[in-house]
Amino acid sequence: MSTLAVIPSPTVSVIPAPSPVVLGDLTRLQTYLLSLPKDEFQQVPLPVEHIIHGGMYARTVRRGFDSVTIGSIISKATILIVNGPCSMLIGDKRVDLEGYNVLAGLPGRKSMSIARGPVEMTMIFPTSASTIEEAENEIFVEAGLLVSRRDEKESD
Predict the structure, then answer these.
(1) Distance CA 148, CA 2 (A)
(2) Model confidence pLDDT, tens digit, residues 6-46
(3) What is the pLDDT of residue 150?
(4) d(Cα 6, Cα 150) in Å, to the nearest integer?
(5) Residue 133 is part of which domain span?
(6) How would you class 48 by CB atoms within 10 Å of its CB: exposed for 0-12, middle for 13-18, buried for 19 or more?
(7) What confidence tens digit (pLDDT) does each residue in 70-93 have?
(8) Which tens digits make up the pLDDT trace of 99-133?
């Protein structure tokens, strides 16, 4: 595993892709967590608010204290608005964010974050998609891993 440096906010305004080593670590951790029996590890569905308007897709997730997320690989440049206290993997560094932050997300990123209080995260990107599923498929390399999609499959 890699060792991460910690930097305080607001010194970061761009979210780069992680190094191949950190990306591999994140992917292995996510695969391990998804392989655990449900009685040992429970994923809590996070309601997602979506809107497509003016050629843009916005996706908002609201999280509670101590929630942990590992995101899917993002294939396009985005804007990410983070409101609230959290620690977030940005590139290969842990960054402690407080308050309201507007960040430029680069393509190829995969991230992990831990909420240290109520946190709202909104990701925005330009799209020609006409449905939420099309927009998710356009932005997420691993769209099939989205918790909302797994929950839909399991309830069928």
Answers:
(1) 30
(2) 444 555 688 999 999 999 999 999 889 888 887 776 677 78
(3) 55
(4) 33
(5) 5-155
(6) middle
(7) 989 999 999 999 999 999 999 999
(8) 999 999 999 999 999 999 999 999 999 999 999 99
Q: How many structural domains compose the chain?
A: 1
91: left (phi over 0), alpha (psi -120 to 50) or beta: left
User: What is the CATH number for 55?
Assistant: 2.60.120.10
The CA distance from 91 to 93, in Å, is 6
The SS3 of residue 63 is strand
DSSP summary character for residue 109: B
In the chain, at which residue ranges do the beta strands (DSSP E only) sit? 5-8, 14-15, 48-53, 56-63, 68-70, 78-83, 86-90, 93-97, 100-105, 112-115, 119-126
Distance, first Cα to last Cα, the chain: 38
